[in-house]
Amino acid sequence: MSTSSALSPSLHPLIAGATSAFITTTLYQPLDFLKTQIQEPKNGISKRSIGLITKHTIQQYSAFRLWRGLTPSLLRAVPGSALYFHLLNSVKEKIPKAQQTLFVNGICGAVARGAADLLVFPFTLIKVRLESSRFTTMNMISIILHIYSVHGLQGFYTGLLPTLARDLPFSGIYYMSYRKLKDTFSNDKNSPSNTNWLTSQASISVTAGLIASFITQPADVIKTYRQVAPTDYRNVHMTIKFILQTYGLIGFASGFLIRAVRRTLVAATAWTLYESFLR
């Protein structure tokens, strides 16, 4: 008997989600590192480019420095994605196929992501601090101790509101778009055969990821400001006001290109791996 058949079918989405998250997080961590450094408050320092940050990081440290923050990223992504896929699959199983409308799919994706975010959120904050240029001399343990000593346990949930404002619509819009595109392909008599299923799957995932990334970009910038410098940007309103006064609306586009690339690659890889594991 194979390992897959020996496991309860209800565990398949959980295991597939965790496995795909481990692979995608490890592969694309450098993109997350660069995004955080581009988005973080500059304090008057001239805007840095992806090329300059990459060059400086490699020269000052090494190429492996681009994977700084990988440990909390894995601690966040692996259980978070496992729970997300498990909840999403469980909720969808309880809803008749005929009732799985575009809106319902969006709600399912948002609810599953929200539950996962609440569970692993502290690791999101630790990850961002490690990636930031403001905490280059601190390791994961010292960052944890620093957060607790300054803000207490509630400090580990700094930036939760903008994170939920980013992740809930992102996951809802992504899954809604993903299912719509997938159903469209499936209903097409000329739909792809098994030989080019991978290309079709990746294309659907990338398209859905780009749509969701564009809509949720402002919340991602606000989240980074709040998590990197919570004493300077004490609430969401203050953060929005500062960005608008300093950079204008374009300030909310900071890091969009690299975020869109990363989010679409992660989503495409994760969902493609996930669907592959369950096939």
TrEMBL record:
It comes from the Eukaryota. Keywords: Membrane, Repeat, Transmembrane, Transport. The keyword Transmembrane applies. GO terms for biological process: glycine import into mitochondrion. It is found in: Membrane. GO terms for cellular component: membrane; mitochondrion. One of its GO terms (molecular function) is glycine transmembrane transporter activity. It is a multi-pass membrane protein. InterPro entries: MCP, MCP_dom_sf, MCP_transmembrane. Gene3D superfamilies: Mitochondrial carrier domain. Solcar repeats lie at residues 8-94, 100-184, 196-279. Belongs to the mitochondrial carrier (TC 2.A.29) family. This is Solute carrier family 25 member 38 homolog.
